[in-house]
From TrEMBL:
Protein family (similarity comment): Belongs to the thymidylate kinase family.
Protein's name according to its UniProt entry: Thymidylate kinase
Source organism (scientific name): Thermodesulfitimonas autotrophica
Catalyzed reaction equations: dTMP + ATP = dTDP + ADP
Primary gene name: tmk
NCBIfam families: DTMP_kinase
PANTHER family found in the cross-reference section: THYMIDYLATE KINASE (PTHR10344), UMP-CMP KINASE 2, MITOCHONDRIAL (PTHR10344:SF4)
InterPro entries in UniProt: P-loop_NTPase (IPR027417), Thymidylate_kin-like_dom (IPR039430), Thymidylate_kinase (IPR018094)
Entry function: Phosphorylation of dTMP to form dTDP in both de novo and salvage pathways of dTTP synthesis.
Source superkingdom: Bacteria
One GO cellular component, as annotated: cytosol
Length: 208
């Protein structure tokens, strides 16, 4: 099996930027790297991404959770597991913790039920390590643009994103070996260097 790293954090924290930068760094070391983003990465997943970004009307939170989960089921089965079986390093821009943080802490659904849903759609796969890019809500929302330019989730407001951020930090506290928390408030180069250092350590600890 290869090595599976997920990236988490509130919208605008810098995940997409850092996934690309880490992919380049690991490829330069000779790793075969695959990057994916959620929701998306498969034909069904990309269709669900469009629905989730711009639904015809506001949806029930349970329906929302199931759509993210459906996209994840496809991505795991069609892309992530085959890549890991081929010995690749997979970098995922969001994974199961996004559901716990956004639909659980953010929307108020049961984290226990969402964990069971996650286990079902991932076939039990969980990341070898998870990079949490942490940033105060105001700074992150300033990066995603003016209110008029934001998508459905980005419009949810500071109180929602504070709950999401706190939940990520709570998860990190529960399992400091798996979760690598990085201060996303610095220049992209500084964030990149720290993530690269921490991931190299995590790869070194991996015995597979
Ligand atoms: N460390 C950083 N400092 C300042 N701006 C950043 C930083 N990292 C990313 N950005 C910018 O902030 C915006 C959101 O970054 P992005 O990587 O798309 O975040 P996310 O994927 O977490 O939503 C982009 O315009 C990006 O260029
Ligand atoms: C994967 C996932 C994403 N989301 C949300 C978080 C984001 O607002 C949105 C994904 O859009 P995206 O543009 O990828 O996020 P970002 O702005 O962080 O790059 O979907 C959930 O609510 N639950 C989930 O399980």
């Amino acid at each position: 099996m290869g090595f599976f790293i997920s990236f988490e954090g509130i919208d605008g924290a810098g995940k997409s930027t850092q996934v690309q930068r880490l992919a380049r760094r690991l490829a330069a070391l000779g790793f075969d790297v695959v990057t994916v983003r959620e929701p998306g990465g498969t034909p069904l997943g990309e269709t669900l991404r469009e629905i989730l970004r711009n639904p015809v009307r506001e949806m029930d939170p349970r329906a929302e959770a199931c759509l993210y989960a459906a996209a994840r089921a496809e991505l795991v089965d069609r892309v992530i597991l085959p890549a890991l079986r081929a010995g690749k390093v997979v970098l995922a821009d969001r994974f199961t913790d996004s559901t716990l943080a956004y639909q659980g802490a953010g929307r108020g659904l049961s984290v226990e039920l969402l964990s069971a849903l996650n286990a079902f759609v991932t076939q039990g796969l969980s990341p070898d390590c998870t990079v949490i890019i942490d940033l105060p809500v105001a700074a992150a929302l300033a990066r995603v643009g003016a209110p008029g330019e934001r998508d459905r989730m980005e419009r949810l407001g500071p109180a929602f994103f504070s709950r999401v951020r706190e939940y990520y930090l709570h998860l990190a506290g529960q399992d400091p070996t798996r979760y690598l928390v990085v201060d996303g408030g610095r220049a992209p180069e500084a964030v990149e260097a720290e993530i690269f250092r921490l991931v190299k350590e995590a790869l070194g600890r991996c015995t597979r």
